[in-house]
Design a protein that fits this description.
The protein is mostly helical. The protein contains 14 helices and two strands; from the N terminus they run H-H-H-E-E-H-H-H-H-H-H-H-H-H-H-H. Helix 6 packs antiparallel against helix 7, helix 11 crosses helix 13 and helix 13 crosses helix 14.
Amino acid sequence: MSGFLFFYNIPKLSWDAYKRKVKSRTKTLFIPYILWNLVPFVLAVLGKLSLALVSSDNIGDVLSMIQEKSWHIFYDCREWGTTQTNWLGDNLRMTGPYDLPLWFLRDLIVVTVLAPLIYYAIKKLRLSFVLFLFAAYISRVWTLLPGFHITAFFYFSMGAYFALNRLNIVTFANKYKYLLIPVCACLLVVTTIYDGTNTVIGQNVYPLFVSSGVFTAFYLASWCISNYDVRPNKFLVSCCFFIYAFHGVGLPLIGMPLVLITRILHKIIPGNTGIENGIVYLFAPFLTAFMCIVVLMVARKIFPKITLLFSGNR
């Protein structure tokens, strides 16, 4: 959607149009990205500093933390997925900023800056460019440079291809629904059986499942709208970015909201069985989202202007 909306009303990219788009996304992407990584980190530093002063501990650990993280909080201070490999057997290392879920926002900022290059690649190579990125996406043979993950480049470029060629994503999804839905369903079963990306087979099936699932989601959404007049709740839509940014940010005392809710549910629900884990897995996201919405509602009442900045003016 980001790639589609960037090029939707730009049949021919000009310098003025590019500047206008970048200026708009500075408010919706860059400013909240900086705030969501800087403010929680500062709070964490202040929290550790307060504990060190109260307990008369050496504040050297706090200074080491500041020195170690420094500007990396905006780019690559966290990592995961070090056990995954690509088709060539190379080890993959995913990195993220201090607010870990914002790794994709980081990459989105990068592809937005590089949008002119993507524009000219699609104009010159057309579908071949998107297919090249798709091959890189499923094989995971791509640069490991932080901020340049293939996920952002592939999906942004695919959205850009639809926009620049005046193709309707919903029409495309409806046209191929009898192929997309069965394929997506089968890949979902296989991905579940092989534990997502935690196995070699799962790592290879997962990208195919997600790419088919994207268009399946478009079809199902359009089907609900057409047949049952389902409409989005404007209030919940306005909360989406805040939920995305807040649910996985590290906060003093409570840590990540999603992790906190998950631990509470594990304490409340007895036993340590597959059923208990399944219930926690399914309900933790809903309760975390509810928690985020409550926090957002309170923040909007107390700090409306600041909250607007954190929400990307949404």
